[in-house]
Amino acid sequence: MKKLVIANWKMQMTVRQSAKAAKIFARRKWPAGVDVAIAPSYLAIYAVREALRGSSIQLAAQDAYSEDKGTFTGEVSPRDLKEVGVKYVIIGHSERRRFFGETNEMIAKKIEGVVRNGMIPILCVGETAQERKLGKTWEVISEQLTVGLPGTFPKRGLVVAYEPVWAISDGRVGNPARPSDAAEVHGDVAALLKKRFGKASDACRILYGGSADANNAASFIVEKHVDGFLVGGASLKADSFEGIVDVCSL
Ligand code: PGA
Asked: From the candidates 93, 102, 186, 242, which is the catalytic residue?
């Protein structure tokens, strides 16, 4: 299975800056053995799509609403994301859970919407510092997975991103997990997926996210069940992002 690296640009760049960065990314030669995608902010999605034409980089989205159409002012339909060429959709990012009150139940519905529209969901899970301190890491993550995951394995594929909330950077400085701690959670996630989906779960990629960068990526990727990265801060510049992708191609 190919490794996967997703650039999550969050709300860090303007539309113009995103288009410019995407052009720079598109000019680089990305290794054929790694799937690479960029999740720009919504308003930049067309500009980034155009900039990525002819490159192997795929388009991703940072979120989607659960319904395809209707009276939902301000929401973004997964049907529209499909129409504009989005392949992967991040769902349940800890910033969505924390700042916008998303619950596991809401996230489950959003995942269904992504799958129904033929895109690949990236379900984000992870514990806070407090939850880890209290020894509740797996309790929290297993609940996020049990409620959030779809009933049957999605035909187009499924991605889970383990992102310890305390390890996610503020865009500049971060505090990554220890690779061995991440590996423990990744192993538990793989076992839960196996129990739920059987053999089909082999097609699910489990990404690590939380201050991943070109310097530490190698120490994560050697761990079992680490199938790539969801990258925030280090994805804003082509050089640092490329360093992470390169590690995945070795
Ligand atoms: P970070 O963000 O790489 O800046 O820690 C990761 C994420 O939030 O997806």
From this structure: 93
